[in-house]
Amino acid sequence: MTGRAHPYVGKPDYQFWKNASGSLDAAELDPVTAPKFQIDVQDRVVTAGSCFAQHVARHLTQAGLNHHVTEPGHAVLPPEVRTRFNYGVFSARYGNIYTTRQLLQLLRRAYSEFDPLDALWEREDGRAVDPFRPQIQPDGFFCAAEARRDRNRHLAAVRRAVEDTDVFVFTLGLTEAWGDRRDGAVYPLAPGVAGGVFDPERHVFHNFGPAEVAADLEAALGLIRAHNPRVRVLLTVSPVPLNATAVARHVVVSTAYSKAVLRVAAEQVCANAETVDYFPSYEIITAPQVRGRYFAADARSVLEEGVEHVMGVFFRHYCPALAQERPATCAPETAPRDRHLEEMETAMAVLCDEELISGEAVPARSGGVT
Amino acid sequence: MKITVIGASHTMALRHALPPDDPTIRVIGLSNTHKNVEQLSGRPWCDGRNIISPRWKDVLARDSHFVSMMRGNYHNVIGLIEHPRRFDIVDEAGRMRPLDGPPRQVVPRDAMRAMFALHAEVAMFSTRQFAALFDGTTIFISSPPPIRSAEHIRSHPSAFKRIIHRGVVPARIRKKLYDLWIETLSAACAEAGIALLPPPPEALDERGFLSEAFWGDATHANAGYGALLRRQIEEHLNR
After folding, report:
1. According to the model, what pLDDT value does residue A328 have?
2. How many CA atoms lie within 13 A of A271 on its CB side?
């Protein structure tokens, strides 16, 4: 007696809920089946996207992948200061890029195709905030002149990132955004939240639909390819729910809509290009198999255990050379010391000791400092 | 009450200004003090552990005022000799006048201040440790302002001989870094409840640099400056 013939016969286990990885043990969940490309350890990887992308960037760096940082911050700044000022968090100091429109406009600004009317938010105390990365400095820029210079340097770093990268990893985060009615400039945060003044006449809300997100993403990737035809692209969708929705409905409903739109758009863009792939970080964190265990007590933040799971799958499929070698936990990055600073510190210690000797100083050890 | 001065090499300007057996002021220069502090206190630098050897209690007179001159020279480590990636910061008024030469990276002033704040934290940590050993008032004295003349620095390269060819940082930038260091130190002192004495006004030129009469080597002041410091300390404590 022969079995019934139907389209599901002979299909691999991963196509069946019951047989797919993760059905028995959530830690085994691995939804990647046929990656379009792999990443070599020498490949320059540029990262951007929403807050979940920060986790991705951190793990890429820590694992020894060539996270290509074109705006690392000056070497006179110690690593803890550079991190606090968002240097090296992503490849350039753009902060979180939540929407594909924001990504597209950043690229257009970098290549002088777009010059937003709302260039700078100057505060009454003389400080200035960059409307397109309002949290990049803990307390804004010291003054408008500093902010302008930093922005120019930043946009040059964006161009270098675009032109030098082998792999661009972008995490889609949101569909809701606030913009400037006059020229369509889109902000990462609503004016007034982290700088600027909200003006209901000028600032307008928009919730991007799937066609808009896909079109913006296609345009952004097209702009990148125009300057760097060899680039490969890996898209992910952030599993982090919306912090707040501007639509008058439950934030859970808005989250579901946003993530669905982003997922559809990513699928569409990937389907149209051999060198654009989708990586299911959203699915790993939110899959029913993991039963919400990767979310923190606030039901929104993703726990490190979840990030580890995502990155384990990532390295297994896209960078197998590093899958075995990467550390079990992601320790804070330690940057090498700057050679000039080391030389200066040594020379200064010698100079100061010479000065002390001239005054018959009490050396620390003999003097009793333990 | 006696005065005990403890700190880095800038204490030597004061020592050179004193007679060998001065009955009032005792100066103790600490070689590599802060390196020891950092090694012992771990990261973050101030972990609350007592890093002062109990032996200090035996060698210091408790009945004394305490003048701290800790952590004096980091602004010079950052900005005396040109870094291969030349940099600049805006001044306290938010200005940045163009300088000759290759373009410079503008380091955000707040980031530079955050870096200095880490060093001010170390200075306050060691100051508080020593201050606990004295009954008198604690005051803090910063390092002297920069020497305006690049020529003087070049002609006194001393330990910088091997790297002086990279160039001396323009005086205007060195002064901005010094001013920012003092601003940061001032905030740290205010938070710790310790008075910070500014450089003696008589030792400054019209732009706030160290006047030529008080130059020592590339970064230190001389005994004349030390004499002004002594007067300043005594006036402050006698107020």
Report:
1. 57
2. 7
| Contacting B residues, span 9-38, partner chain A, CB-CB under 8 Å | 9, 11-12, 15-16, 27-33, 35-37
Distances from the Cα of B86 to the Cα of B89, B97, B149, angstroms: 11, 15, 19
- Are the beta carbons of A369 and B112 separated by less than 8 Å? no
* Long-range pairs of A319-324 with CB within 8 A, sequence gap ≥ 24: A319/A38, A319/A39, A319/A40, A319/A41, A319/A63, A319/A65, A320/A38, A321/A40, A321/A41, A322/A41, A322/A63, A322/A64, A322/A65
Which of A187 and A58 is assigned the larger pLDDT?
A187
Query: Do B159 and A75 count as a contact with CB atoms less than 8 A apart?
Result: no
Range with the lowest mean pLDDT among A334-338, B163-167, B210-214? A334-338
CA A156 to chain centroid, in Å, comes to 18
pTM of the model: 0.89
Contact yes or no for A141 and B110 at CB 8 A: yes
Q: Are A207 and A247 in contact (CB under 8 A)?
A: yes
Q: What is the mean pLDDT of residues A237-252?
A: 97
**% of residues, chain A, pLDDT over 90:** 79
Contacts of A153 in chain B (CB under 8 A): 105-106
- A96: which 2 tokens? 């979180």
Tell which A residues from 141 to 160 touch B, by Cβ distance under 8 Å: 141-146, 149-150, 153
If you measure CA to CA, which chain A residue comes closest to B220? Answer: A355
- Å from A133 to nearest chain B CA? 15
Q: Three-class SS of residue B62?
A: coil
Contact A308, A284 (CB under 8 A): no
Nearest to A77 among B107, B160, B218 (CB): B107
B220 touches chain A (CB under 8 A): yes
Percentage of residues of chain B with pLDDT beyond 90: 62
Is the Cβ–Cβ distance between A341 and B77 less than 8 Å? yes
Residue A198 reports pLDDT greater than 90: yes
* B94: closest chain A residue by CA: A143
Q: What is the band of B35 on the pLDDT scale with cuts at 50, 70, 90?
A: very low
User: B135 pLDDT band (50/70/90 cuts)?
Assistant: very high
Contact A75 B83 (CB under 8 A): yes
DSSP, collapsed to helix, strand or coil, labels residue B113 as: helix
DSSP line for B5-58: EEESTTHHHHHHHS-TT-SSEEEEEBTTHHHHHHHHH-SSS------S-THHHH
Q: What pLDDT score does A337 carry?
A: 78
